[in-house]
Amino acid sequence: MPTMPKNKRAPWMPAPAPAWTHRNRWPGYKLNKWKEASAQFKILNPLCSTPGCNGATHSTDHKRPISDGVDPWDQSNWQALCYDCHKKKTVDDRTRAQRRPGKG
To answer: What single DSSP character describes residue 81?
Structure first.
C-alpha cells in the first residue's frame, strides 16, 4: 500500500501555526504610503543607527513602540536598523511589553 512521504501533510490538515505572529502589529505597515516613506527614509539613512554597528539598513523602526501611543508618522521617532539590530530591538520591546503591568 502506498504511503505519503513523511515531510508532507495531508491536504485536510491545517498548516502549522507560525512560531511568532504579529497580533498587535500596526496595520499601517501594509499601506503604500508607509512603504514609500520607509523607502525614502532608508535612502537618506543607509547605515544602521545602532552605535558601533555599520550594517546596511534593513528596516525603518520606531524608537518608541507605537503601542506606547506615539504617532507612527512622526519621523523624529524613526530609526534605520540593520536586520540583526532590528531583531534584537523587537525582542527587547516585546519582553518589555510583557513585563509591563496591564499590558499583554
So the answer is: E
Domain edges within the chain: 30-99
- Residue 70's alpha-carbon distances to 6, 23, 74, in angstroms, are 48, 18, 8
The DSSP letter of residue 47 is B
pLDDT band at 32 (very low <50, low <70, confident <90, very high): very high
Please check whether residue 55 is in contact with residue 84, taking contact to mean a CB–CB distance below 8 angstroms: yes
Residue 12 pairs in a beta bridge with none
Neighbours of 57 (CB within 10 A): 23
**90 has a pLDDT exceeding 60:** yes
Cell of 12: 485536510
What does the pLDDT read at residue 101?
Answer: 63
On the question of pLDDT at 35 being above 80, the answer is yes
Distance, CA of 104 to CA of 101 (rounded, Å): 8
Q: What is the pLDDT of residue 10?
A: 73
